[in-house]
Amino acid sequence: MNSDIESLAAISAGFKRGAVRLEELRINDIKASDTESALRSFDLAFKSALKNPFDRKTVGLTRLQRVLFGVDR
Fold this sequence. Notes:
Structural class: mainly alpha
Number of strands: 0
Number of helices: 3
Strand content: under 5%
Order of helices and strands: HHH
Largest sheet: none
Number of domains: 1
Radius of gyration: 20 Å
């Protein structure tokens, strides 16, 4: 039982450290981003999606999401 609690405490500590680092990376990515280039890329991706639509049942869903949303039973 104690080893389970210690394992969970270690995992929790890892997530706390990871969250700080991920936030630092997110802020740096935002500062380094090129808005004009990003919007151009999104526009091209949107136009491509309109020309080549995906099957609505499977588009972008992971197996877990498919089960949770009831697509797969």
